[in-house]
Amino acid sequence: MGNLTSYPKGALEWAAIFLAVAILIMALFGGWFTPYDPLQIDFRGKLQPPSGEHWLGTDGSGRDVLSRLMAGAQLTILSTLVVIAVVLVIGCAIGITSAFVGGWLDNLLMRLADIWLGFPPLILALGFAAALGSSLEAAIWALIFSWWPNYARLSRMITNDILSEPFVAGATALGVPTWRKVVFYVIPNAFDVLIIQVTLDISAVMLAISGLSFIGVGAQIPAPEWGAMIAGGRAHAGSAWWVVMVPGLAIFVTALAFNIIGDMLRRELDPTTRRRA
Amino acid sequence: MSVRDDPLLRLDRVSVALRQGGREMVSGVSLSVGRRELFGIVGESGSGKTLFTRTVFGLHDDAVVSGGEVTFDGRTMPAKSHHTEMKRLLGKRIGFIPQDPFSSLNPSMRVGAQITEALYLARGLSPKSREARDAAIAVLAEVGIPEPDIAFRQFPDQFSGGMRQRIVIAIVLAQEPELLIADEPTTALDASTQRLIVDLIVERSRTRGLSVILISHNLELLRQSMDRIGVLYSGQFLNLFQADQLAHQEVHPYTQALFDCIPTKDKTLADIRPIPGEPAGAGFGLAGCSFADRCAFAKDRCCATPLPINDAGQARFSACIIGKGA
To answer: Region A245-270: what's the mean pLDDT?
Structure first.
């Protein structure tokens, strides 16, 4: 990962990086700087087109769309990051344990992951969300439950690759204990592959969260979650395009930006080209 | 340090078998490595030399010591906990230099950190301490790394193959082992670098008074730098001889055949005689001599008579039943 900064990036990559950073900043701080209260209903001013007063117009209940977009970034993006962070930790813990211990435990955990992967994540999440009740928290739990096998399998595979490297045998010969192997040999060398997967998964998880909210099992309608905003604007999609297009575009642009960054990282850190530079 | 005559390492009829299926890959190896002795193990690819050494020293997870006794510094390893006992010696009293310097260093750890980690594991020096840092730079200088204080902060991919192997040697030397095992330390390097690395291992071991086991398929390289050489073929221990007395002693027909195919400056092309036939792999469990079908001296009984074993642990040994090289 030493040559991360030296890689030549095109305009597309720079645009993606700029957008991703802007979106992350908006997710962290945007909720404090909204021009209006994102939940303030104003029936007299409903479905106003974009104007100087309401830059991105108002929705069917007269709520300011820009304010809702900014506040919603926090809900959508931060819940995505929470899901990713939790599945990364849980998945890697399971995968690395599986690779180190091997034997029946390895078989048990990986077959479990295989069975889990057999269910499409959105369907599984739908089931979980239905069982836990419809809320954003339920959607987050549901995605954590359905996403961990990806990271368990990936981290087990990388760990097995690393464990077969001669430098791990060398470490054994130096008397390096298992916990040091995990911390200093496996995790730093698995980092490249994991960071690519994380970047690519950000858009996938975000789409899943928005999707669950859109079909009504995630965030509930007054909440400015982007998927829920689209769901709430469906009735007016023909007459007031901005109500659905704005959050839709936000989801699209965010997903695209993280995908471009993920692809860039993959090209740069590909395991087949990175070892013997 | 007083000079002691008892061997540092003694192997008595040691056999190695695969964990799954229990197929015996190498059988009946008896030899001893003295203190300060440089011992070479030679064998073709697939002869079992790497498998054997790695298994004996607890570095192979797929094979086990299936018979015989391993004694290190007067202490015989219990058969049941051989692996665990060996692991306790690794990194403290036994050092191991792997084959390929390109993949035997952790790519995401600075050279200095890898040495201070080794120092911490072997001698308990705190990895961040001034003392560990000084010791690491000293050992880098000892193996001939130019500007060791700069190398201390660099990553392995900033070095050439030869330099990386020097770093590997530095890491192992930092632990101050009594026995150094080098598993084909030069196969991945070019010919001139090979010489330098082997010379470095020999010179450092002589200076520090270490015993060395160097595994190679290069008989000439071993002859020039080792004290004694053991020959493995197809999982059988065929020959054991003094490297410097070659001119005055007869060797096993296989060892002789190996020497006959080495080009030297007073040989013409016609003098180089390849060994007929294909090398036999290890693990066929032959009763007789596995070299018999390629041997110029072979008699009918060679294939049937059980192979002699160096029972008495003699310093010289030939497994040839028709008396060649005994």
So the answer is: 88
